[in-house]
UniProtKB/TrEMBL annotation:
The keyword DNA-binding is annotated on this UniProt entry: yes
GO molecular function: DNA binding; ferric iron binding; oxidoreductase activity, acting on metal ions
Gene3D superfamilies, per database record: 1.20.1260.10
Boundaries of every Ferritin/DPS domain copy: 16-154
A Pfam family assignment: Ferritin
Organism field: Aureibacillus halotolerans
SUPFAM superfamilies from the UniProt entry: Ferritin-like
PROSITE patterns: DPS_1
Family: Belongs to the Dps family.
Highest taxon listed in the record's lineage: Bacteria
Keyword hit for Chloroplast: no
Name this polypeptide is given: Starvation-inducible DNA-binding protein
InterPro entries: DPS_DNA-bd, DPS_DNA-bd_CS, Ferritin-like, Ferritin-like_SF, Ferritin_DPS_dom
PANTHER family given in the database record: GENERAL STRESS PROTEIN 20U
Length: 155
């Protein structure tokens, strides 16, 4: 592979990783929003679950960004970049509790599908350490999604 082609591949890989990093930032803010604004009979359980999820997402964000820096990639670091790169949407601010849960479940699915493709690309380029971070994140999000879908009775 030529040096020029390798540079193009790395740039594309960086774009893909930043897309997922941006999705995680949007998810993190959305989880905070839902944590603060959830109402109804399931307030206590959802309030706690959203907090657990945003804490975990924060850790994934940090680990991914640090791995990016270690392999000479530049992680996105502004709200403008996150919103331009993300494929998931912000919270509307008008969701009921069940809509919050369904939206997070949908987001986890979307992040999972995009991350699977990213993992393949990372492994093709022998970036196994950062691929492992995404593998671990996906396993955690699968369990979270299962719990959210069980809450919605959509298993």
């Amino acid at each position: 592979m030529s040096t020029e082609q390798r540079a193009k591949d790395v740039a594309e890989l960086e774009l893909q990783v930043n897309r997922q990093l941006s999705n995680l930032h949007v998810l993190y803010i959305k989880l905070h929003h839902y944590h603060w604004y959830v109402k109804g009979p399931h307030f206590f359980s959802l309030h706690e679950k959203f907090e657990d999820m945003y804490d975990s997402t924060k850790n994934h964000i940090d680990e991914i960004a640090e791995h990016m820096l270690a392999i000479k990639m530049k992680p996105c670091a502004s709200m403008d970049e996150f919103m331009r790169n993300a494929t998931i949407k912000e919270a509307s601010g008008h969701e009921a509790a069940d809509e919050m849960v369904e939206t997070i479940s949908d987001d986890l699915f979307a992040i999972g599908e995009e991350s699977k493709q990213l993992i393949e690309s990372l492994e093709e380029h022998q970036e196994f350490a950062i691929a492992d971070v995404f593998h671990a994140m996906l396993e955690e999000y699968k369990k979270d999604d299962w719990m959210l879908r069980a809450y919605l009775n959509k298993e």
